[in-house]
Every structure is written in structure tokens, then in C-alpha cells.
């Protein structure tokens, strides 16, 4: 789960860095947006894919229910697909909107975990009866 959060952080932080990439180059800041240059979009997409894949791996390792995979994993994947469709890395306003939107993405992960927990808790109560 920790590695998945690293991927998510790299994804949204790089989008944030794309807002002022031109200024970073002028003043010598070595952000990930500058480091990856023309390959910044593939890097962001790879980070997003890594996030989803590692969420799936964490779910398998923790024996999560299908509800976790539906809400947390599939929800996150669909969020990224929509975000990449709308994202223009050369437009600061687009980068800002995508960066802010990543705060909402956490609700997908959280909701899947909570729904999975409630479902398991209800099944446990039924089994105990």
C-alpha cells in the first residue's frame, strides 16, 4: 500500500509541477516535470497505472472482497482515464484542475475500504448467528 501511495504522489505532484515548468527551467529547479521533459505524460500515466496495480496487489494480499476491487481499484482506474482524457500538460489551468481533482480520488480508495469492511462485518455477524 505504501508503494501505491508513492506512485499516486508522483502522479499528482508531477502534474502540479507542470503548471510552472517553464519557470522551473529558467531558474534551474529540477522538478519531475523538467526531469522527464517530453516523456512527462508517459511517466504520469505509468505512475497512475502503478498506483492501481499496487492497490490490486494490496487487495489480494489482504483478501479484500470484490467490493474493494470495484470501488477502490476500478473507481480509481476510471478516474485516471477521465483525468488523462481532459489533461493538457501545457495548460497551467488544466494542470491545476487535475491536481485539485486528485484530492477527490482519495474518496474512491477510502469508500472501497469502508464498504468492504462493512460488508465483511455484516457477513461475520451472520456467521456468528
TrEMBL record:
Cofactor: Mg(2+)
Record localization: Membrane
Cited InterPro entries: Prenyltransferase, UbiA_prenyltransferase
A single GO molecular function term of this UniProt record: 4-hydroxybenzoate polyprenyltransferase activity
Superkingdom of source: Eukaryota
A GO CC annotation given for this chain: mitochondrial inner membrane
The keyword Transmembrane is annotated on this UniProt entry: yes
Membrane topology: Multi-pass membrane protein
GO annotation terms (biological process): ubiquinone biosynthetic process
TM annotation in the entry: 43-61, 67-84
Keyword list, A-Z: Membrane, Transferase, Transmembrane, Transmembrane helix
PANTHER family hit by this protein: 4-HYDROXYBENZOATE POLYPRENYLTRANSFERASE, MITOCHONDRIAL (PTHR11048:SF28), PRENYLTRANSFERASES (PTHR11048)
Record-stated family: Belongs to the UbiA prenyltransferase family.
Entry protein name: 4-hydroxybenzoate octaprenyltransferase
Gene source species: Hermanssonia centrifuga
Amino acid at each position: 500500500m505504501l508503494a501505491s501511495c508513492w506512485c499516486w504522489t508522483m502522479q499528482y505532484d508531477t502534474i502540479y509541477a507542470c503548471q510552472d515548468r517553464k519557470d522551473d527551467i529558467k531558474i534551474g529547479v529540477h522538478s519531475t516535470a523538467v526531469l522527464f521533459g517530453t516523456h512527462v505524460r508517459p511517466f504520469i500515466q505509468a505512475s497512475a497505472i502503478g498506483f492501481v496495480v499496487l492497490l490490486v496487489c494490496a487487495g489480494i494480499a489482504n483478501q479484500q472482497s470484490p467490493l474493494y476491487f470495484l470501488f477502490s481499484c476500478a473507481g480509481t482506474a476510471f478516474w485516471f482515464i477521465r483525468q488523462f482524457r481532459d489533461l493538457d500538460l501545457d495548460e497551467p489551468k488544466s494542470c491545476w484542475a487535475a491536481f485539485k481533482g486528485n484530492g477527490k480520488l482519495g474518496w474512491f480508495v477510502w469508500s472501497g475500504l469502508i464498504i468492504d469492511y462493512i460488508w465483511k462485518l455484516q457477513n461475520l455477524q451472520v456467521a456468528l448467528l
